[in-house]
Description:
The structure is a homodimer. Chain A is α+β, with helices and mostly antiparallel strands. Helix content of chain A is 32%, strand content 22%. Chain A has 15 helices and 16 strands. Chain A has an eight-stranded mixed sheet, with helices on both faces. A five-stranded mixed barrel of chain A has the order 1-2-3-5-4. A three-stranded antiparallel sheet of chain A has the order 7-9-8, with no helix packed on it. In chain A, helix 7 (255-276) packs antiparallel against helix 9. At the A-B interface, strand 1, helix 5, strand 6, strand 7 and strand 8 of A face strand 1, helix 5, strand 6, strand 7 and strand 8 of B.
Amino acid sequence: MEKTSIKHILSQGKISEDYEINAWVKSFRNNMFLAMNDGSCLNNLQCVLPTEKYNEEFIKTINIGCALNIQGTLKESQGKGQRVEVDIKTIKILGKADSEEVRKTILSPKKHSLEKLREQAHLRVRTNTFGAVMRLRSKLSFAVHQYFQTESFQYVTTPIITNSDAEGAGETFRVTNFDLKAIPKTDKNEVNFKQDFFGKPANLTVSGQLEAETYALGLGKVYTFGPTFRAENSNTTRHLSEFWMIEPEVAFCNLEGNMDLAEDFIKYVIDYVLEHCKEDLEFLEQRLIKEESTLPKQQRSEMSLIEKLEFVTSNNFKRVSYTEAIEILKRCKPNKKKKFNFIIEEWGADLQSEHERFLVEKHFKCPVILYDYPANIKAFYMRLNEDNKTVRAMDVLFPGIGEIVGGSQREERLEVLVDKMKTLKRDEKELWWYIDTRRFGTCEHSGFGLGFERLVQFVTGMSNIRDVIPYPRTPKNLDF
Amino acid sequence: MEKTSIKHILSQGKISEDYEINAWVKSFRNNMFLAMNDGSCLNNLQCVLPTEKYNEEFIKTINIGCALNIQGTLKESQGKGQRVEVDIKTIKILGKADSEEVRKTILSPKKHSLEKLREQAHLRVRTNTFGAVMRLRSKLSFAVHQYFQTESFQYVTTPIITNSDAEGAGETFRVTNFDLKAIPKTDKNEVNFKQDFFGKPANLTVSGQLEAETYALGLGKVYTFGPTFRAENSNTTRHLSEFWMIEPEVAFCNLEGNMDLAEDFIKYVIDYVLEHCKEDLEFLEQRLIKEESTLPKQQRSEMSLIEKLEFVTSNNFKRVSYTEAIEILKRCKPNKKKKFNFIIEEWGADLQSEHERFLVEKHFKCPVILYDYPANIKAFYMRLNEDNKTVRAMDVLFPGIGEIVGGSQREERLEVLVDKMKTLKRDEKELWWYIDTRRFGTCEHSGFGLGFERLVQFVTGMSNIRDVIPYPRTPKNLDF
Lengths: 480, 480
């Protein structure tokens, strides 16, 4: 008999037909009712054991966590909670799970904290919550590729090990093949990088943008989707040392086109999971309601998870210039009453997360695209506006998570770019190839970066970013 | 007017309609015929300049490499070589390209060696060859996701920074946040990793398999597709220090199922590009014929590129046990005549690339799956056969490139796994979480790793692996 997935049986199984499944025991009631799950979907398949046919010894070996092979006949269920169930004809224990040992793990049938689940990240995907989160993460990834491929973008893998720091923030991890106990030195007592694997200092990428730009200027429309790294010592619920980023880059595209792309893209991928992951989303929606039920009413979300997603896909993102945003912030209550940690006093201030959240959650009550930021708080590659003081930057801000997208129109003018690099003390020699692209058929072009885990957070309603990636990396945390 | 891609105009453009394009000049004949390309496809769009309407000064600024905006009317072409062309109504220079400077680059219209192109990797995607290779690479990537998602696999991103070495080969890059000039030491003069970013030694992953296994044992069927790293000092046409790997992992699946999956998967993705990338493949086929025309006849490929791809998708891969392969090799001519560098004398020998190529290219003349290798030449996690001397390993060998897939059924039995780790001196404490999965509902499961760049090499016919990834990383090479 061919094995069938539980997802298939629950959605398309035929009554009176025989099926064979391989799956794990999620619960075992009354020595009779087995709830089986194989990871293909959230819901379990109830399998009914004819207890009289098996001796006590055998039944005792069936525990939560066991892997079983079951053959049986599908029938309509008498009990509540499921439409169909399987009458077991044969049952085989493939892999045991000692009940005493299970009790010590998060597989045991009681409520475990998310912190506890993180400590057993190798098992947490077997829980309902993490099964749902990771299936959603997978579907969202696919939606990303599907969107860009349908829109004729070429997927580009930019290098992970580089010797440049795209953002210039200096928060890169060093990559080396040296024995750290005995670093080779030069005559001048400097590190002798010539002897290292790559013959020069190497680090992990913070962004594939600069390389993606070189490809957009040949292929027209490209996107990356790969891991990026920040050696930043921040222990927050929004930061990871290793995270996945999506970076489209488009030739012959200005900032307006870039905003259109970001909005269209985000709406597409959210629509995609609304269509393909209803069951998992409904489960996570209930989870969030339970989680928030312990909070005071005013701290709970106004919308349910699915309402929030549908709100995003069916409303325009509000586009606001930085200058307008500063005016709003200067005049707003929390600023006047000094409730903000950072009081906005004048144009030029860098916006903090508290200001972004105020704009999105209190003032506009919808996703917001801020654009045209002061040049001196943004990166060297952003296009200078005619006012000579703002750049064509944009950030997309989302309720609950703040900045989800950061992008810009790129400075395509050779002289302006080189001037800017001089001002910001960026090494022109290191980035000769980047500058070179402005010599040969330069053109206006734009792109953005979207932190994939922030998107997964938004879609799943998980409040800690460590709970939307299989094995999170954060300061002092490299488990698994 | 809305801008249209050249791909769209060439495939679906309507005669007498007006179009607007943004693209780069590939050639400019007789001050009149512009071959324009925007990266959307291989072929150029011919645009005809009414020379009489423009002064010499202006025409002189139009060079190869320039970015232009052109509006004009589509008409049937009088000339040879193209079906349609555009009568230019307006033309705007968006980005210049100085002809003297172009002459110094690979954009200049003459034959450049692949080595030369590598030195200007930021520009090479603008050539026909690299445009075709990178479009194929993009489509192949998408086919990978499409295959697994259609087959209900969940995409899993396994960590890039780890503190384990899955293969145990010790060829990992170190990741650190230390200032290499001043490494903190302990009292015992050891490196004080507690003070490093993660609080312990960290390295770049060589494989996501072990983490993928933990996910397969919850979600059932998973796959990874991400970068992996080898700090191996090999300067060959088949090795990169940073490459992308695809690693499916399937619960309740034995080695036969694993072989079926590998074969089905490879055939699917090749079929996909045969269907979607005909034009680029035909171009690369011609390129290969030209490249091989300088070789003596017996060194040229017997099949053309597309014939070779179709051969793979329409024939069964030959499945041969390691033991059978050794018998064939012991008896074969090059072994008897000592033409091999490594003479096969007895069972247990590790196969070299020369042996694999003999089996694939001379003996079987088709893709080969070798399986059931001696345990002592394979990794600790492979399932021991009943003979106690072979393991359920498999390698898929391809003509021209050798090993493209390496996989195995995994050792699911707790005691056998732990014994094996002891024998091979693998640290049980480090891999506690991996071993743990064998305690809770273990089951037979299998998976494999496919080096993505080797697949791209096979599909594009490019002989050097550095030419199928945008910015290759190899020993002493970290440019761009």
